Amino acid sequence: MKTGKQILSNFFDTFEVDYVFGNPGTTETTFLDVVSTHERCKFILALHESVAVGLAAGYALKSGKTPIVNIHTYPGLANAMSNIFNAYSVNIPMMVIAGQQNREHLIHKPILSGELTELAKTATKLQYEIRNVSEMNIALQRCFLEATESKMPTFLSIPMEIYEDNCETGYFKKTKLLSNTQNPDLNQLVDEIKHNMGKKMAFVVDAETHWCANLKDSLRDLSAHLNSDVFLAPFASTYSSIDVNMPNFKGSLPAISLQAHELLANYDIVFLLGEKIQSFLYHEKQTIPENIKLFQFSNGNTMVRFDCQFDYVVRGDVGENISLLSKLLGCAKVIPHHLQMGKVPNTLLANIMNIIPRDTTIVIEGGSHQNVEEELVHQLHFEEVYFKSRGGALGMAMPLAVGVSLVSCKHSVCLLGDGASMYSIQALWTAAHYNIPTIFICFVNHEYHILKQLWKLQVPDSQEQNYSTIMDISNPNLDLHKIAEGFGAKYAHATPNNYQEVLKAAFEFNGPTFITIRDDHKYSM
Asked: What is the mean pLDDT of residues 487-511?
């Protein structure tokens, strides 16, 4: 006979679970009792559920493993949903476990209880609530493997008394997932490409490709052979599968649908590697111009299929299939090289970024300065960058950067604004508590500047005082110095005169440093 606790412990052993990220409550105490005594698995405490999910996302992206998140019944799941949705939108795997009230108590609708699986359904690949302990091993394994294979969050609700129940089943096997075991027939596509050699072509790379093996080298060879440009899709979150030093890498595609449409209209053929080209702000002209040929390579584990009018769709591991296409077209191997760095603008942000080592992971939250930051990381050739998720919810970047540094044991750098920092500022405490080296560079403008910009774009005849009175973060101003130090981080304010010393001290500190700068990135020093 095995108890639910023993089954959970065996699950941690079989699937080599290193960490559980969570913000627990009373329904999770039996779960925590297993983690606290487990030899391998360590609990990483977050002060808010969305921070726990962001930490797990950073861990997943950097380690390639599927993390476990533990949160507290219905309110905890509700608090976590924005970052679960962010992870869902860009194919970040994780298994979210929430405690549920005692099954015999649910008839009375006790405090904190609710339909957990119904809530989770909006942003997870699979949802299930265990009904008895004999289901526990299958439910754990199914949710974990589904998250691992689909690269999406899954959700499991476990009533709190299940862990003390006994059953005769409960074993696990460490399943090995083999995919793309058969090569697709690409001959028709090869003939189509050969027929159109000499025409203008472009590749657009979406978030789904982060998990694809061999794509970076194959895409470099294929795009050079076709003399094609390469773009990162809007809100694709990372360009880890792109060689940013390729001369034909053109950065991110515009997020505004009309601007993307006008840019792509210059091409005859577009290859979409991944799920979709996400857009922002509707326009009657669709992002993909009607007269171009559109070829998609997709793993198939996506939220939305056939979001555009495709000429060809190829399913399977994108990296393997691009590698196969490259061989069928006889592409020569291109030796990677580092481009000469262009002239860096003389701004405080640019000068700070210029002295950061290029192998440092950069995490961008997004906001009014996002375009400037994306242009800089592209121009300066940073090797690993995570952009704002196409889920669009603020609050992912700070904990994601901490999760990345937990794996790498090296400093990551997170760029964000003062307004956005308030969505997950609690990540500072987790970084301080576990001595995780992370640097946060926060632009201070005392307003939601991006919302003012969009308001003006959408309602151009609106008076400035209309949106200034609503969107200002002032009276009182945020005291970021006290807030950062209150969560255990070191604080510094960078200026043109001291930024080198500030950054040097931050990289020497084995913990979080919160650096503020004036939001004057568009002005010269």
From this structure: 97
73 alpha carbon, distance to own chain's centre: 24
CA distance 285 to 307: 15
Superfamily of domain 348-518: Thiamin diphosphate (ThDP)-binding fold, Pyr/PP domains (3.40.50.970)
Establish whether the linkage from the previous residue to 234 is cis, with ω within 30° of 0.
no
CA distance 469 to 465: 6
What 3-state class would DSSP assign to 350?
Answer: helix
Least confident of 154-158, 162-166, 359-363, 453-457: 453-457
Going by the DSSP 8-state scheme, the letter that residue 106 receives in this structure is G
User: Rounded to an integer, what distance in angstroms lies between the CA atom of residue 89 and that of residue 295?
Assistant: 21
Q: What is the mean pLDDT of the chain?
A: 88
What's the rounded Cα separation, in Å, for the pair 150 and 169? 27
Number of Cβ within 10 Å of residue 64's Cβ equals 12
Whether residue 69 contacts residue 21, with contact meaning beta carbons closer than 8 Å, is answered with: yes
User: Which residues pair with residue 514 across a beta bridge?
Assistant: 440, 491
Which structure tokens are listed for 323? 């590698």
Bridge partners, 516 (sequence order):
442, 493
Q: Which of 333, 327, 391, 336 is nearest to 365 (CA)?
A: 391
Mean pLDDT value of segment 400-423: 96
| pTM of the predicted protein model | 0.84
Contact criterion met (CB below 8 Å) for 429 and 403: no
Q: Report angle CA 256, 51, 349 to the nearest 5 degrees.
A: 55
436 vs 427: CA distance, rounded Å: 11
Q: Which two tokens stand for residue 367?
A: 């906001």
Looking at domain 2-167, its CATH superfamily turns out to be: Thiamin diphosphate (ThDP)-binding fold, Pyr/PP domains (3.40.50.970)
Residue 367 CA to residue 302 CA, distance in Å, equals: 26
